[in-house]
Design goal:
Elements lengths: L4 H93 L4 H27 L8 E4 H16 L4 E6 L4 E4 L1 H18 L5 E9 L2 E8 L6 H4 L17 H11 L3 E6 L3 E8 L9
Parallel strand pairs: 2-4
Antiparallel strand pairs: 1-3, 4-5, 5-7, 6-7
Length: 284
């Protein structure tokens, strides 16, 4: 007995329809999952852009505030430096007049140290108010370090002991005065950490096409609560400190395409890394 064609067609459709529907649902679910994934990815990108925009806004506001503060500070620094120069001259004249009077000269030496500390603060304020534009020429890190060690030893020995340890290729490309100022600030920072009576070592070495300079002191270390922001402007672990010294150091080092990091434990070490210059390549 033959089946009715219409019945056969109906049976075939009844068999195929559920399978086709399942495939459609599966494709829909896959597309839905993809769209959901795209949505989540887009949302993450929007969140990242929003965070970046907020950071930029904070950065712009901070730069504007610092620029205004820098201009004011620079004006004050210039006003302070003029009488400071006169005081330095008078102290020098007094030293000549008091020749042979050891007790009076010792007191005058303390006055001279105070003047130098104040002059360092003024220099930091002026550096902070300026853009860190560096010249580009070969500089000898060893000679800078040895010069600074001799300078500070003449002022602060024997209460403080200074040591220079230099090895390797000393040359880097950059601004000699800028790096001198950066190291000067780090040494002043180390002196303050040891209360002007401790051991300070300035070392230099070379490795992997870089100059590594370290300034280390045997003071009590930097409080943990301020370590993360130690290079931020106006962050200081010392009562009465301006919080500009280390900020200026970082700006100078970054202008030289270098890095600076803090290692604080039983001893405090600031480690600077600068791109090395191969002096022999230019026939110098």
């Amino acid at each position: 007995m033959m089946k009715n064609p219409d019945v056969a067609s109906s049976d075939s459709e009844s068999l195929n329809t559920p399978t086709s529907l399942i495939e459609v649902i599966e494709r829909f679910n896959q597309s839905s999952d993809k769209l959901e994934g795209y949505h989540l990815e887009l949302q993450r990108e929007i969140d990242n852009l929003r965070e970046e925009l907020q950071r930029k806004e904070v950065e712009i506001k901070q730069k504007a505030r610092l620029a205004m503060l820098g201009e004011t500070a620079a004006g004050l620094a210039h006003e302070i430096r003029n009488p400071l120069g006169a005081i330095t001259l008078f102290v020098s004249m007094l030293k000549d007049d008091l020749s042979g009077q050891d007790e009076s000269l010792a007191l005058l030496s303390e006055v001279e140290k105070g003047i130098k500390s104040l002059d360092a603060v003024v220099s930091n304020v002026l550096h902070f108010s300026q853009d860190q534009v560096t010249c580009s020429k070969p500089c000898n890190s060893h000679s800078i370090i040895q010069e600074l060690v001799q300078h500070f030893a003449s002022l602060y020995s024997p209460q403080s002991r200074f040591e220079a340890v230099v090895h390797g290729n000393p040359y880097f490309m950059g601004d000699e005065q800028g790096i001198r100022q950066a190291l000067y600030n780090l040494i002043i920072n180390a002196l303050q950490a040891v209360s002007f009576a401790g051991n300070i070592t300035i070392s230099a070495d070379s490795a992997d096409n870089a100059i590594i300079i370290r300034v280390q002191d045997d003071g009590p270390g930097i409080p943990e609560e301020i370590r993360a922001g130690i290079f931020d402007p106006f962050t200081s672990g010392r009562p009465g400190g301006t919080g500009l010294g280390l900020s200026i150091v970082r700006r100078i080092i970054q202008a030289h395409r270098g890095t600076i990091i803090l290692e604080s434990g039983s001893q405090t070490t600031f480690s600077i890394q600068l791109p090395q210059h191969n002096k022999t390549q230019e026939g110098m």
